[in-house]
Amino acid sequence: MRKLIPCLVIALLVGPTVAEAKGCIKGAIVGGIAGHYAGHHAVAGAVAGCAIGHHEANKHRAAQENSGVSAH
Questions:
Q1: CB 50 within 8 A of CB 68
Q2: What's the N-to-C CA distance of the chain in angstroms?
Q3: Mind listing the pLDDT tens digit of every residue in the chain (72 residues)?
Q4: Where are the alpha helices (DSSP H) in the chain?
Q5: pTM of the model
Q6: What is the DSSP string of 4-15?
Q7: How distant, in Å, are the alpha carbons of 12, 31, 52, 67 from that of 21?
Q8: What whole-number distance in Å separates Cα of residue 56 and Cα of residue 22?
Q9: Helices 24-37 & 42-67, crossing angle to 10 degrees?
Q10: Rounded-to-integer distance, Cα 44 and Cα 68, Å
């Protein structure tokens, strides 16, 4: 648990500069926690979570644009 907090802080500081923040922060938090419990790979999990969250947010945004619903 001692290493989890600094890893999440790093992921939150570095993650949004690499990708658009939409979806990235939530994915980084979830991925960091999952990576931590899956073998102390919190940073790798946060980076992967950020990428997946960003991808899913883009898919959601594209689906909304195609359906005519305005995105927030």
A1: no
A2: 35
A3: 566 666 666 666 665 554 456 677 888 888 888 888 888 788 888 888 888 888 888 888 888 888 876 555
A4: 4-18, 24-37, 42-67
A5: 0.59
A6: HHHHHHHHHHHH
A7: 9, 15, 12, 23
A8: 9
A9: 150
A10: 36
- Chain-centre distance for alpha carbon 44: 11
Structure tokens belonging to residue 23: 């979806």
Residue identified by tokens 């939530």 is: 26
Q: Which amino acid is at 66?
A: N
Instruction: Tokens for 1, please give them.
Output: 């648990």
Length reported for the chain:
72
Q: CA 34 to CA 44: how far, in whole Å?
A: 10
Domain ranges of the chain: 20-67
Angular region, 49: left φ>0, alpha ψ -120 to 50, beta rest: alpha
